[in-house]
Specification:
Jelly Rolls, alpha+beta, four-stranded antiparallel beta sheet, five-stranded antiparallel beta sheet, MetI-like fold
């Protein structure tokens, strides 16, 4: 049976030579690179506005990932944002009435197999008197309808065309005029040919259905007194698929939450695991090396800590104080100063301190501190690192569990927070699988990487598992 290597450098070199170690390093390097990228290039504005609905208004609600349409071949609609610069503005005046009209006109090609999930019109009107606002819609087949008409004062407007009462009323009037069923939904009317509406069998009218292909056209008119009249508009046609990981019920991009959650998960897990492992290792070494009263005190404190209801105490503290994830981290460390690593390290140090080279160091007058930190601890540190690889995923799971119980960080977009909100939003019940499956898969993937790393350490350090 081969001898276990000594020294951290030699051990890590052997870890990198194992298949499980290589796979673990690749996974962790990818997650780490993702974490560093988002911290370096990402905007803190995303985190500050994570819980602000207005910030995400340009995203569709509960949209599946874009790659789903590639797999199913459904050609699901993507989001189309027509910004103010995409509108062609014309200004005209009527000298007889003293009124002016601003016309905002935009075009877009639409070749998807379904209608947009929502259409949102953002309108900003600046006028001295009330204005008449109209929105006309021209389809590729040449048919035209007035979608919206309202007399409004100056200000900013957010109009959801599918549900706005004025828009619904205008569309019903149009359907009545062409002798079509008034029960057809607004979105179906806007993206179906007039002939199919009349026949009672609405069909999506794509730009490519006419020859040559023609775009849809939206025309917004604002009429008011000519003094200081100005206006701008943005038209959002929100898709049914979005990004790499889809969106949640608050329109937030789940992939952004995953990106920002990665450094939080790794920082929380690694910091807790490293500090707790090293503190417990040092305490175990002190207990074994000094013995007597020091050993007795540390052993009894360890016994007390091991019987404490850890999770119950942590939940109670969080429920009372509603602290951030970093105070959660401090609480976890405080409740884990003594533990099983303390006892296992103590048993190893009891054997190591009896070895001849330790007795030789004592005989030539080396101080106890020198012997402990330079001769004994280096022998047990490899086992400490092996314990770290076990503890990291457990603390990542702990953060997710606390979030799922509603006592996690209330602000940061952590992986656990994503899963908690998916649970509250009924993701499993309503079939929004991407909302819960993707964050969960990341937690499992990171845990698997550390499990593989632990297996590599165990294979190298455990004499019974070492290859001949």
């Amino acid at each position: 049976m081969s001898v276990a290597p000594t020294g951290l450098k030699n051990i890590f070199r052997e870890v990198l030579q194992t298949k499980s170690g290589k796979i673990a390093i690749i996974i962790l390097s990818t997650i780490l690179a993702m974490s560093l990228t988002v911290w370096i290039t990402g905007s803190e504005e995303v985190v500050k506005n994570w819980n602000e609905p207005e910030y995400w208004i340009d995203n569709p609600r509960l949209a599946a990932p874009e790659w789903v349409s590639w797999i199913t071949g459904s050609n699901a609609p993507r989001t189309i944002i027509l910004k103010p610069e995409d509108f062609r503005k014309t200004y005209s005046e009527d000298p007889l009435t003293g009124q002016a009209t601003i016309q905002l006109r935009t075009r877009f090609y639409y070749d998807y197999n379904d209608v947009p999930s929502e259409i949102i019109l953002k309108l900003n009107v600046n006028a001295t008197t009330r204005s008449l606002i109209t929105l006309s819609w021209i389809k590729p087949d040449g048919s035209k309808l007035e979608v919206y008409r309202k007399d409004a004062s100056r200000g900013s407007y957010l109009i959801f065309l599918y549900t706005d009462t004025d828009a619904v009323s205008s569309v019903k009037s149009y359907l009545s005029g062409i002798n079509a069923s008034p029960d057809i939904a607004v979105q179906t009317v806007l993206f179906s040919s007039e002939a199919s509406l009349k026949s009672g069998d609405p069909k999506i009218l794509r730009s490519s259905n006419v020859n040559p292909p023609r775009p849809y056209e939206a025309i917004i008119s604002i009429t008011s007194r000519k003094e200081s009249l100005s206006a701008s508009a943005q038209l959002d046609l929100l898709g049914r698929v979005h990004g790499i990981a889809g969106t949640d019920n608050k329109r937030r991009d789940i992939f952004i939450g995953i990106l920002w959650g990665a450094p939080v998960a790794l920082a929380f897990g690694l910091t807790a695991a490293l500090i707790i492992s090293f503190v417990q290792t040092i305490l175990g070494a002190l207990a074994a090396f000094y013995g007597y009263r020091v050993d007795e005190v540390i052993e009894r404190l360890t016994d007390v800590y091991l019987v404490l209801p850890f999770l119950s105490l942590l939940i109670t503290i969080q429920f009372i104080y509603k602290t951030t994830i970093w105070t959660i981290l401090m609480t976890v460390i405080a409740l884990s100063i003594f533990g099983t690593i303390t006892k296992s390290t103590r048993s190893m140090v009891l054997q190591v301190k009896e070895e001849p080279y330790i007795e030789a160091a004592i005989s030539y007058g080396a101080s106890k501190v020198r012997i402990l930190f330079l001769y004994i601890l280096p022998r047990v540190l490899p086992y400490t690192f092996a314990n770290v690889t076990v503890l990291v995923p457990s603390y990542i799971f702990l953060e997710a569990s606390l979030s799922l119980l509603g006592v996690g960080d209330p602000v940061l977009p952590t992986w656990g927070k994503l899963i908690e909100e998916a649970f509250i939003g009924g993701a499993t019940f309503y079939g929004y699988w991407w909302w819960i499956l993707i964050p969960s898969s990341l937690i499992i993937l990171v845990s698997m990487a550390f499990a593989l790393l632990w297996y590599s350490f165990d294979k190298i350090l455990n004499p019974r598992l070492r290859e001949e």
